[in-house]
Description:
Blueprint: H1 2-11, H2 14-73, E1 109-110, E2 116-125, E3 130-137, H3 142-149, E4 154-157, E5 165-170, E6 191-195, E7 201-212, E8 228-235, E9 242-249
Parallel strand pairs: 5-8
Antiparallel strand pairs: 1-2, 2-3, 2-6, 4-5, 6-7, 7-9, 8-9
Amino acid sequence: MNQILVTKKLYITPELKRKKKLYKFYFFLSVFLVFSLISFYIYAEVDRSKSEETSQAILDNFNKEIDTTTADSDVLIAVLNDNSSDNNSSSLPASQNQPQRTVNTSKQQTTSSGYNYSTVAIINIPKIDVNYPVIDGKTDTPEETEALLKLSPTKFWGPNPNEIGNFCVVGHNYRDTRFFSQVLNLVNGDLIELTDETGKTVKYSVYDKYEVSPDDVSCTSQLTNGKREVTLITCTNNSKMRVIVKARAI
């Protein structure tokens, strides 16, 4: 009996104790890492959900502004000449008697990090259920662009929406259904609709899709041969390359 006890006692060596402590350390470290990863994922998901809500709020406000602008432009006021004996008197719409009104529905807003931006368009892609406002910053710095991309697809380069030239829009790929995550599934012939500040909607047809390295900005070229184009830019699923989708006004 004593021999058995002595054997058991001798079996627990200092080396074994050290290994046990090491195993405990690795165990608690693994638990900590798993907990940290879960917490990070939950935080990122909540942050993305807030971004989606913010983007839809921006979209709703922009739609209201467009509705107001359209309603105002549809009102015609008849102006009568006070001199009834004048044979040249006539009733004319107010638009012919007043200076042309400048439309500017994009009210400047500020991000939580202090960057100013305005809403310049709505992008709608029926095939992949994309319907977001396109926002535009004031400084075009990388830091500003990164802050705006958390809110909504963002103008990257080019003219005003629906004008001659190449209107470039960049959006995050969250690998789900939000923002530009499904842009990778577009093919030639798919439709992209762009509504500008005046409420005018122009349809564009996809004619090319390809990948480039992150530092390749050749897709922003304004050489469109006098045509209106839209370029969509997002990341590949592994974030190593950029997906470029080119569309031309129908």
